[in-house]
């Protein structure tokens, strides 16, 4: 009985890891598709407008050493 439960738990853990991997790759594909849609809109621009800038950049942080850190809207989430 214990061996059967242990085997089932191991199979479920493996299945969980596979599903998490698929979900993660699906999110990356979605982010790439969103980026592609955004970039198509800006392919033929002559001037960087505030609208374009706001669509591409989420926020800008200035570190203590005065260097900027730019967070783009299309950045893929970090996978841990």
UniProtKB/TrEMBL annotation:
InterPro entries in the record: DUF4368 (IPR025378)
Domain DUF4368: 26-64
Domain of life: Bacteria
Pfam families: DUF4368
Name of the protein in its database record: DUF4368 domain-containing protein
Organism of this sequence: Aeribacillus composti
